[in-house]
């Protein structure tokens, strides 16, 4: 097992990464009150709920659970309210802990419930998808969707501890594993070209689910995220670099309709567009773009999106949270492993980069 810390002063917390982690031992110091509400969904709960309930019972805790239906479409106010119903009807108090057992959807919802129930209770993340292990469980962004926008209602809520158990990835569908690898590749492209070389050596084994290599990939990814979050918790600057590929990706996701492409798949093609534009701006070489596409393809991720009318693509991009004072800012690459956030790019070159990485209509 490896341990990393997110250094946030008094709110500093560990991320435990390994296989067959022992929740009884690892959670003991972090469950501060007596009551624990485990929030999960109807896919993950049958697989892993009992294991965590037993560990918490062994610690002498009072354990209840709230099992939500599985899916991004339920990440909304109505289903958030079911968590509050469960907390209130079980008589949970201000010392209670909400434990998220699931992927990013469950982590974001349970975290927001923990941030707002009785103005804030303790929170623990047990991420069970690769995407949630390398991204959403770390850094404290929580929230729900609104019919008018994804993740538009939320709060920052850092957990007490994160347990990332590679053994739980065994049951994850291969497409979800690849979607998580998109975010892993993102860390390499934005900040660590040596990690990119490592990924190129091991990507086939990662896709095949090698637990030792996955643990190393999660560790290296979380180390990047933890460092950035420690410097810029509330995204005043550097944290926006974590959105490499996301502005293009959100346009793809929004146009296709949520759930048609997974978030990681859209981010993958978005990173190709960002690399292509960085090349058109003279920052990356064509070989760098080819290298970006190659690692994405080897992770079983798409490098082109379906044909999307340019005006619609641009309209979806303009709804991005990185639009400041009406001006679009993009995360691009000055070189492989060195991302920047910039508003200084030729819009025509951006349009060329979008069109070049779509299927023909
Ligand atoms: P998800 O939570 O929908 O999980 C994907 C699928 O895998 C679901 O069907 C889930 O039930 C299933 N699953 C989860 N763990 C499993 C396991 N071990 N075995 C078998 N099946 C399992 O999706 P995700 O990709 O984990 O997260 C996406 C969500 O995360 C989005 O809502 C996105 O907005 C959010 N997100 C948040 C942040 C953040 O910083 N808070 C960052 C990135 C993404
Ligand atoms: N997923 C981007 C962030 O946490 O900032």
UniProtKB/TrEMBL annotation:
<keyword id="KW-0479">Metal-binding</keyword>
<keyword id="KW-0028">Amino-acid biosynthesis</keyword>
<dbReference type="GO" id="GO:0008652">
    <property type="term" value="P:amino acid biosynthetic process"/>
</dbReference>
<feature type="binding site">
    <location>
        <begin position="70"/>
        <end position="75"/>
    </location>
    <ligand>
        <name>NAD(+)</name>
    </ligand>
</feature>
<dbReference type="InterPro" id="IPR056179">
    <property type="entry name" value="DHQS_C"/>
</dbReference>
<feature type="domain" description="3-dehydroquinate synthase C-terminal">
    <location>
        <begin position="180"/>
        <end position="323"/>
    </location>
</feature>
<feature type="binding site">
    <location>
        <begin position="104"/>
        <end position="108"/>
    </location>
    <ligand>
        <name>NAD(+)</name>
    </ligand>
</feature>
<feature type="binding site">
    <location>
        <position position="141"/>
    </location>
    <ligand>
        <name>NAD(+)</name>
    </ligand>
</feature>
<keyword id="KW-0963">Cytoplasm</keyword>
<dbReference type="InterPro" id="IPR050071">
    <property type="entry name" value="Dehydroquinate_synthase"/>
</dbReference>
<feature type="binding site">
    <location>
        <position position="150"/>
    </location>
    <ligand>
        <name>NAD(+)</name>
    </ligand>
</feature>
<keyword id="KW-0057">Aromatic amino acid biosynthesis</keyword>
<comment type="function">
    <text>Catalyzes the conversion of 3-deoxy-D-arabino-heptulosonate 7-phosphate (DAHP) to dehydroquinate (DHQ).</text>
</comment>
<dbReference type="GO" id="GO:0005737">
    <property type="term" value="C:cytoplasm"/>
</dbReference>
<dbReference type="InterPro" id="IPR030963">
    <property type="entry name" value="DHQ_synth_fam"/>
</dbReference>
<dbReference type="Pfam" id="PF24621">
    <property type="entry name" value="DHQS_C"/>
</dbReference>
<dbReference type="GO" id="GO:0046872">
    <property type="term" value="F:metal ion binding"/>
</dbReference>
<dbReference type="InterPro" id="IPR030960">
    <property type="entry name" value="DHQS/DOIS_N"/>
</dbReference>
<feature type="binding site">
    <location>
        <position position="183"/>
    </location>
    <ligand>
        <name>Zn(2+)</name>
    </ligand>
</feature>
<keyword id="KW-0456">Lyase</keyword>
<feature type="binding site">
    <location>
        <position position="263"/>
    </location>
    <ligand>
        <name>Zn(2+)</name>
    </ligand>
</feature>
<feature type="binding site">
    <location>
        <begin position="128"/>
        <end position="129"/>
    </location>
    <ligand>
        <name>NAD(+)</name>
    </ligand>
</feature>
<protein>
    <recommendedName>
        <fullName>3-dehydroquinate synthase</fullName>
        <ecNumber>4.2.3.4</ecNumber>
    </recommendedName>
</protein>
<feature type="binding site">
    <location>
        <position position="246"/>
    </location>
    <ligand>
        <name>Zn(2+)</name>
    </ligand>
</feature>
<keyword id="KW-0862">Zinc</keyword>
<dbReference type="Pfam" id="PF01761">
    <property type="entry name" value="DHQ_synthase"/>
</dbReference>
<keyword id="KW-0520">NAD</keyword>
<dbReference type="GO" id="GO:0009423">
    <property type="term" value="P:chorismate biosynthetic process"/>
</dbReference>
<comment type="similarity">
    <text>Belongs to the sugar phosphate cyclases superfamily. Dehydroquinate synthase family.</text>
</comment>
<keyword id="KW-0547">Nucleotide-binding</keyword>
<dbReference type="InterPro" id="IPR016037">
    <property type="entry name" value="DHQ_synth_AroB"/>
</dbReference>
<dbReference type="GO" id="GO:0003856">
    <property type="term" value="F:3-dehydroquinate synthase activity"/>
</dbReference>
<dbReference type="GO" id="GO:0009073">
    <property type="term" value="P:aromatic amino acid family biosynthetic process"/>
</dbReference>
<keyword id="KW-0170">Cobalt</keyword>
<feature type="domain" description="3-dehydroquinate synthase N-terminal">
    <location>
        <begin position="66"/>
        <end position="178"/>
    </location>
</feature>
<comment type="pathway">
    <text>Metabolic intermediate biosynthesis; chorismate biosynthesis; chorismate from D-erythrose 4-phosphate and phosphoenolpyruvate: step 2/7.</text>
</comment>
<dbReference type="GO" id="GO:0000166">
    <property type="term" value="F:nucleotide binding"/>
</dbReference>
């Amino acid at each position: 097992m490896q341990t990393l810390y997110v250094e946030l002063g008094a709110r500093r917390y560990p991320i435990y990464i390994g296989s067959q982690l022992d929740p009884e031992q690892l959670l003991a110091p972090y469950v501060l009150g007596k009551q624990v509400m485990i929030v999960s969904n109807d896919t993950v709960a049958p697989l892993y709920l009992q294991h965590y309930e037993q560990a918490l019972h062994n610690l002498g805790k009072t354990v209840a659970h709230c099992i939500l239906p599985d899916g991004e479409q339920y990440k909304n106010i109505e289903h958030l309210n079911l968590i509050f119903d469960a907390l209130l009807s079980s008589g949970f108090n201000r010392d209670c802990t909400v434990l998220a057992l699931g992927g990013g959807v469950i982590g974001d919802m349970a975290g927001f419930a923990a941030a707002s129930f009785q103005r804030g209770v303790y929170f623990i993340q047990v991420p069970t998808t690769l995407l949630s292990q390398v991204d959403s469980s770390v850094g404290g962004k929580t929230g729900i969707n609104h019919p008018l926008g994804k993740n538009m209602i939320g709060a920052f809520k850092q957990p007490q501890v994160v347990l990332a158990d590679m053994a739980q990835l065994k049951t994850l569908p291969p497409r979800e594993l690849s979607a998580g690898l998109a975010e892993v590749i993102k860390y390499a492209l934005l900040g660590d070209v040596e990690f990119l070389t490592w990924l190129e050596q091991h990507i086939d084994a990662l896709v095949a689910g090698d637990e030792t290599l996955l643990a190393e990939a999660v560790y290296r990814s979380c180390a990047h995220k933890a460092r950035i979050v420690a410097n810029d918790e509330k995204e005043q600057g550097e944290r926006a670099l974590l959105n490499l590929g996301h502005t293009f990706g959100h346009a793809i996701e929004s146009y296709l309709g949520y759930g048609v492409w997974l978030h990681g798949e859209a981010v993958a093609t978005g990173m190709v567009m960002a690399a292509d534009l960085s090349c058109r701006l003279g920052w990356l070489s064509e070989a760098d773009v080819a290298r970006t596409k190659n690692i994405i393809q080897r992770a079983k991720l798409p490098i082109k999106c379906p044909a999307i009318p340019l005006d619609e693509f641009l309209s979806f991009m303009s709804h991005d949270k990185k639009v400041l004072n009406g001006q679009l800012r993009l995360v691009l690459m000055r070189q492989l492993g060195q991302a920047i956030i910039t508003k200084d790019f030729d819009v025509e070159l951006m349009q060329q980069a979008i069109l070049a990485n779509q299927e023909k209509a």
